[in-house]
Amino acid sequence: MILGLGSNTNLQFNEPGGIVRDPNSNKLYIVDTLNHRIVSYSSKNVVAGGNAEGYTNRRLHSPIGSVYNSFTKRLIIRNWTGHNVVR
């Protein structure tokens, strides 16, 4: 499968800005910058943002990177235009 193509809107990326892997489950999380969200590749679900532009984990504004903290099992997201870091 080629990412960014297909009929599933969760696979329609707009400026993917990063990818991070959970080392425990091997899940991949894709930073979809201009869609203002983080998508789990394995389940093809939005896991953060995706509710228009904003400044919380429910409404991101141009996220450009993330890391996965395997100890807390949480994503830490650099919310670029939101000028904050969201967990």
Under CATH, the topology is which? Thrombin, subunit H
Rg for CA atoms: 12 Å
Estimate the global geometry from the Cα principal axes: globular
Note the run of SSEs as H and E: EEEEEEE
Low-confidence stretches: none
- The helix content is under 10%
Q: Give the count of structural domains.
A: 1
Strand order of the largest sheet: 1-2-3-4
The whole-number mean of residue pLDDT values reads 82
**Which structural class matches the secondary elements?**
mainly beta
What is the CATH class name?
A: Mainly Beta
The number of helices is: 0
Strand proportion, as a percent range, falls in 35-45%
Would you report the number of β strands? 7
Task: Tag the structure with descriptive keywords.
87 residues; mainly beta; Thrombin, subunit H; 4-stranded antiparallel beta sheet; 3-stranded antiparallel beta sheet; 41% strand; globular
SSE blueprint:
Layout: E1 16-21, E2 28-32, E3 37-40, E4 45-49, E5 63-69, E6 74-79, E7 84-86
Antiparallel strand pairs: 1-2, 2-3, 3-4, 5-6, 6-7
